[in-house]
Amino acid sequence: MRVWRKLHLLLRVSAWLLVLAASGVQGSAIQEVDVMQIRYWNGTAARDPYELALLLLALDKTAADYPPFNITRLEADLGSDRARHELARGELINIYAAPYRARVGEVETKIVQVPIPLLKGLLGYRNLVIREKDLARFEQISNKEELKPILIGQGRSWPDVAIYRHNGLQVMDEGLFSNLFAMLSLGRFDCLPLGVVEAKATLAAFDGDKLDLTIAPDLMLYYPWPVLFQISGKHSLLAERVTKGLALAAKDGSFDALFDHYYGELVEQLREQESKMIVLENPTLKEQMGLQEPQLTALGL
């Protein structure tokens, strides 16, 4: 199965590189750049070490064929909407990692999404951050119908909102990410779904214990939610390089090795858990990628 997945990935990358070439990226352009300027942003601290390491791996794999690079990191809470606009402009930032978005609207047409999932679908597994006093309430939930009375909290312009609403769930999407934990504690909504790769660390970073918040211990959500490198369309050479680098890393096994280094233990923990899992449909991926079942079943989940 792994050999087939790698072959499928290489075929998809080859097709994508043809698209980039058709859009005006020619081999001679590589010679016209002395230093590739990479302006990187990551809005999720818990995922940042892995995603940055993966970007550096992709750049290293292509070092022989591309110019040297310089990375400038932006440390700011841009918010989802502003980040998309800044990425489209390609000046303040020109790359970051984020979940797939449908190519709808003027801003999205100016952004290149490298079609190689970075987290093997792991971000689609969602823990529910809740108030400690609501533990008994969430213990009674085991399916989507029972989840419908729950008000889900999300940040403004988060793409997840469309998924929850498509599945008939209630959503409050207000405020920046940094405000959501206090809002949950104050009762503005009932739960905050976060990816298993980030939930515990993020809750600790925002002093969840002082806010009387916790993670529902035996309930998870899943929806297909591939995280991709998002790159400004004004920097198509960078998009070409990252695409090639990730494909090379997938082919030689270094991609899998890096994933296992950061998330292998978490995958083992998920294997051992007996949590109830509510599977939601992601309408934006229904045709494009066809990923509706939990992707990590290949890893034994």
Describe what this molecule looks like in 3D:
The chain is α/β, with parallel strands linked by helices. The protein has 2 domains: 2-121 and 225-252, 3-Layer(aba) Sandwich (D-Maltodextrin-Binding Protein, domain 2), CATH 3.40.190; 123-223, Periplasmic binding protein-like II (D-Maltodextrin-Binding Protein, domain 2, 3-Layer(aba) Sandwich). Helices cover 37% and strands 20% of the residues. It contains 10 helices and 11 strands. The chain has helices at residues 2-22, 48-61, 80-89, 135-139, 144-147, 160-166, 180-185, 199-205, 236-252, 254-272, and strands at residues 36-41, 69-74, 95-99, 111-113, 125-131, 151-154, 170-173, 191-195, 213-222, 227-232, 276-279. Strands 8-5-9-11 form a 4-stranded mixed sheet. Strands 3-10-4 form a 3-stranded antiparallel sheet, sandwiched between helices. A two-stranded parallel sheet has the order 1-2. Strand 1, helix 2 (48-61) and strand 2 (69-74) form a beta-alpha-beta unit. Helix 1 (2-22) runs antiparallel to helix 9 (236-252) and helix 2 crosses helix 9 (236-252). The chain is globular, with a radius of gyration of 20 Å. The two termini are 15 Å apart. Mean pLDDT is 85; it is low at 1-16, 21-31 and 289-294. Keywords: Signal. Residues 1-21 form the signal peptide. This is ABC-type amino acid transport/signal transduction systems, periplasmic component/domain.
Distance between the termini: 15 Å
CATH superfamily descriptor of the largest domain: Periplasmic binding protein-like II
Order of helices and strands: HEHEHEEEHHEHEHEHEEHHE
Overall geometry comes to: globular
